[in-house]
Structure formats: structure tokens, C-alpha cells
Model the fold of this input.
Amino acid sequence: MPTEPEQSAPPSGGVRHPMLILLVAGFSSLCAALMQSLVIPIQPELPTMLGTSGSNAAWVVTATLLAGGVAMPVTGKLADLYGRKPVLVVSAIILLIGSLTCALGDSLAPVLVGRALQGFAMGYIPVAISFVRELMPPHLRNTAVAGISATLGVGGALGLPIAAGIAQSYDWHALFWLASALALVMVVATIVVMPHRPAAQSGKLDVIGALGMAVGVVAVLVGVSKGNDWGWTSPATIGAILGGVVVLLLWGRFEITRENPLVDLRTTARRPILLTNIAALMAGFGMMAQSIVVPQLLQAPEATGYGLGQTMLQAGLWMAPAGLMMLAFTPISSRMLTALGGRITLATGMTVLAAGYAVAFFLTEAPWQLMLASCISSAGVGIAYAAMPTLIMENSPASEAGAGVGVNALMRSMGTTIAGAVMAIVLTSITTTLGGTELPTVTAFKVCFALGAVAGLGAAAVTLAISKRPRDEDGAAEALVPAAEPAVAGS
Done:
């Protein structure tokens, strides 16, 4: 329940130095998001580096994904209960500890622990999104939300060329020393710059609910992400996915009975929030599809007749403009939110994403063509990612803002996991042989691009099924704040 201190908080825009707060929140969120793609350039060498098998080394990537999926809704709830700043500071410290653990490690165990901690630090992002919306003056609010939301995609895109350049020139530990330095800046900047605000909600964390959600989400994500390696009909894959679904169903039944649940499922089931989260699942699928498929096509051997023969660093550099495009569209997304509202903005973003995949479907003969397609798709992702948290917070009480944005981020993460599994199936099923090696055919790549376009159009259709709000029709920028929170600080 919303507490009296939160309702009597000073109106948004009363903070000092709002642009400095936005800069710190944006920089820190970007640093947390960079962890997604930090080890991708060195993934083929990880078994040798860590003295382990390829299947074990794959967990270095998966651990961050799983931890991030669990962390985002939990940290959002913690922020609602105990205040945004403490959770941001702790998340930054966790990133620092995780990065140092990896930097000092030489075997699988410490690197796995460090990568999991880096994943937990992803919880910084949804908390930062809800915090800047609370703190920013009205004329900056949409821009702030758009900018922080875009870091989820920008970090993954920019991480590839940065990590590839460092891994190519230095020892792999340098990747994690860089992450440690960035995390240290995050910790200091968050402590010094971010203001303290009262908690939006009273009560204690639903520990049983958090554990139940973690078990269910991790089981499903493990089954989906490892299905291609284990076999989709293997007992391990089926057991993980079905077991996770059963746990989540039991978790949902338990949460309904709680007075102060981890996730208010009644709020989550409201039509605008439910449909926005379904769209988020599809948006995550659409974003990840290009991140997986385009680099592989860029690096495919020219001898195939369709491959472009780029190195990992070159492929990362061709992908980098797509990440910058998301940032460039921040002011455009803000204006769209002001003029059109979250519903139309989200549908437009997903349609633009689909258009990017349509370009990629027909233009695959040169790196610049794929860069163009990626930039178009990324512009769509940037627009959509700005709209989703706005829609969530417009339709949630202030006391649930952090948890609501966290669940939305979890749905995006699940979409990226599903995309990874589906693209792996397509790229390993439609192949040709070159020099004794199985490689995806150009048809496989085009099927992936078509699936990305379908995901984008599907998300747009789901979004348009959200009922129009009076503010959408009037073109006003401000959220329709629930009646219980007229004086909430921007939440």
C-alpha cells in the first residue's frame, strides 16, 4: 500500500541538478547493460582459457542472463519497499564485486560467480527508470525514461566492438578490469549524486515469493537456452521447462493470497499492463534476433557465396551504429510519447523494427546493407523501449512502479532468451557444408529475419489492442496518475 510519506513527497522537478542525475543514471545503466555482451567475443576461447569443456564454458554467458532475469523484478520491489537510492548503490557494488571476481579469476568457478553477480547488477536499470521518472521535471520526464530504457539495447550493441577490440589486443582479464573501473565510477557517482527519497511502499520483501519466482524463471530460462544443446526432447530440457512452469503456476497462486506480494498479479493482469508485457516479450525477441543473426552473416566465409567474411571486431563495428541509433532516437521517442502517447508510440516502434527486418530480408549482399537494416530495427527498438516503461507506470500505482518496470524488463529478457533458442534451431537446421563444416544457408538467415519481422508486427498488433486512454486522444504527455497518488513525486 502507498505510504503517507510518499504521497506527501515534494513534486517532481524539485530536485537539484536534474541533468546530472539523468547523466549518472544513464551512464550507470549503460555500464550494467554492457555486461550482456562482454564475453561474447571470447566465447569460443573460453574452454581453453578456463580449462573446462565447451558446455561448461557456455554457462559463463548463461549465468548473467539468468541472474539478470531474476534480479530485475526483485530489485524493483526492493526499491519500492526501501527506497530507490539504496538499491541502486547496492546494485552498483554488486557489479564491482562481480567484475573484480572475474578479473582475478583463472578458472570456471570464480568466473561463473562473478558473471552471475554482474547479472544481478542488471537490476540497476529498471530501478533507474522508475527513479528518473519520479525525479525529473515534467518537460524532461519522457526524455529521461526513453534514454534509460534505450541502454538495455545500447549496452548490448556497443559491448560487442568494445569487448572485441580489448580481447584482440590484451589478455581477456582486461575486459573485467575495465568493467571493474566502470563499476567503481557507478558506485561513487550513485552515492554522491542520487538524492534520497522515501520508500513508496511499507512492508517487507516477500522472500518466499522471490525464491519461488527465481526457481521458476531460472528453470524455464535454462530449459529454453540449453534446449538446442541438450536436445528439445531430452528429459533435462522438458523437465526444466515444465518444472519451471509448474513452479510459476504455484508461485502465482501463492502470490494472490499475499497481502504484500513480490508482484501484484491483479495489477499485472490489468489489460494495459498485461498487453504491454506481452509486447515486451515480442520486442525482446525482435531485438535479440538481429543481435544473433546479423553478426553471424557478417562473419560467414565469403566462399559460401553469401557470407561477408568480416572479423569479430569488424562485425562489432558494423553493429555499433545500431546501438548509437537507439540513443539518437531518445529525443524523438520523447516527442512521440508527448504527442501520441505510449500506446501509439510502442506500436510505431515495433512496426519500424519489422521494417528493418524487411530491409535485411532483401539486402544481404554488403556489410553496409546489414548496417542499414540494423539501424532501422534499432530505431524501432529505441522507440518501443521508451514507450514500455511509460505504459507500465501510467497504469500502475506509485507503490508498484519499481516492481512493474522490473517485470516488464524480465519479459524483455525472456523474449531475448526465446529468440536465442529459436534462431539457434533455424541456423542449425538449414545448413550447407563447406570444408567439412556445417554452416547456415542464406535461406536460414532470411527465415530468421522473417521471424523478427513477424515478432515486430505481432507486438504492434498486441499494443493496438490496448484500450485508448483519454490522454492518448488529447495528445497530452503526462501519465494519467491513479487517484491515490495525486502528489507523488513523478511516479
User: Anything to note?
Assistant: The chain has three domains: 8-204, 206-261, 265-482. The first strand starts at residue 431 and ends at 434.
